[in-house]
Amino acid sequence: MLTLKSENAQNLSGDVKLPGDKSISHRSLIFGCLAKGQTVIRGLLEGDDVMSTRSALVQLGGDITLIDDDDDRRWVVNGVGLGGFKAPEAPLDLGNAGTGVRLLMGVVAGSGINAVFTGDASLSKRPMARVTDPLKDMGAKVEARDGTYLPLMITAPDQPQALDYTSPVASAQIKSAVLLAGLTARGTTSVTEPKASRDHTEAMLRHFGASVESIYHDDGRYTARLAGEAELTARDVDVPSDPSSAAFLAVAATITPGSELTLKAVGTNPLRFGLFETLIDMGADMTLSNQRQEGGEDVADITVRSAQLRGITVPPERAASMIDEYPILSVAAAHATGKTEMVGVEELRVKETDRIQLMADGLLVAGVKVETTHDSMTVYGQDSSPIQGGNTVDACHDHRIAMSFLTLGLTTSQPMTVLGAETIATSFPNFTDLMNGIGGKISVVDA
Ligand code: S3P
């Protein structure tokens, strides 16, 4: 188990190239395998989660190779085509990867095969019925521990039935699983969400030649409609930098005095950009430049300088666009003047951990007042008085909990210690090196 400590720092500075987007990386491997032809992926996030998806795809018959020429590192996927997967001989172990396991459940349900899914201690506590319920409606048979947890077996129908599904939560994982199963169904499959979740699946479906409609309803709901019996044709993918990883650097620069960072080529898809909008509403000093498209996704360079934040109520309709960023937002909020209210965020309770609970517990011991309800968290900012810190937090297999408290430690009077920090490798393998490269002080206590 890796234990890391982070200490008070000043003047973070530099240009930062962040790792590839995790959501897009999972999808690029999956779509590459489902397409006909050869897909070349550049900028893939080589984190543990994406590598778990890769291993599972290989067990299903995918052909995925890394080519590491000096200046052109790329992943080459030879697609098997829709319906081309074979039943795996052993269970598919997705480790910590919620996106990997849920999207692959949709793939298996649309592939006419059966597969058993397993995962680590964290993934085994996360509810899967939210994905398997609609897949059952499409004809899949599902056996799960207590009806919803891994290990879980999916037996696909010969051909899935098309489905019009209304999801109770805005979740790209649910939406994507249903759409992936719908690729081989006869007729049109649609998913309606209470608010639009990230649309990388829809974008990639279009990129690979499928016919998908995105409908934004006047009342805020969103529907994706996919024509079934599709064919996917291989297309190269350039993965942009992950805004969810950039979020840690943006907050670090904001709260650490004397800082100025430029985060290069960060994905600015509006359905992922809620944290940045929120920081700007709170008074952050952030400018976007060089806005452009790379590989079909909007990207920009983001320059962030230290600033005094003020507390706000985060609009609940923004939650889907920053769902992974509430842990690091609560660290920013601890430094604001006044209170920051995060409402309508009960989904945080079913992420890699119960993130409301873990953030509140760790911040409280660090000296920050926090109040919680089932679906909200209120952080009382410390103004300019220093945050005491000095506590040890167990990441409990949650990369974003680990990185949030290490970022907090850059500003606390006493160092913050994080147990189980190896989990950071699921999404941001070079986090520590990158932080230290810009002036952070993160060190290994125990490996
Ligand atoms: C993801 C969707 C989100 C997010 C996760 C990645 C995706 O989960 O939290 O980190 O790539 O589809 P939900 O769909 O459960 O909200």
| CATH evolutionary superfamily of the largest domain | Enolpyruvate transferase domain
Helix content: 25-40%
Largest sheet: 4 strands, mixed
The count of domains is: 2
Overall average residue pLDDT: 97
The percent range for strand residues is 25-35%
**Broad shape:** globular
Rounded to an integer, what's the Rg over CA atoms?
Answer: 21 Å
N-C termini distance:
6 Å
What ligand species are in this complex? shikimate-3-phosphate
Q: Remind me, CATH topology of the largest domain? A: UDP-n-acetylglucosamine1-carboxyvinyl-transferase, Chain
Number of strands: 24
What strand line-up does the widest sheet have?
Answer: 22-23-1-24
Count of alpha/pi helices: 12
Give a topology summary.
Blueprint: E1 3-6, E2 13-17, H1 22-34, E3 38-42, H2 48-59, E4 63-69, E5 72-78, E6 92-93, H3 98-109, E7 114-118, H4 129-137, E8 141-145, E9 149-155, E10 164-166, H5 172-182, E11 188-193, H6 200-207, E12 212-216, E13 222-227, E14 237-238, H7 243-255, E15 260-267, H8 274-281, E16 285-294, E17 297-305, E18 313-314, H9 326-334, E19 339-343, H10 355-366, E20 369-373, E21 376-380, E22 392-394, H11 399-408, E23 416-419, H12 431-437, E24 442-446
Helix pairs in contact: 1-2, 1-3, 1-6, 2-3, 3-5, 4-5, 7-9, 7-11, 9-10, 9-11
Shikimate-3-phosphate binds at residues 23, 99, 171-173, 176, 197-198, 323-324, 347.
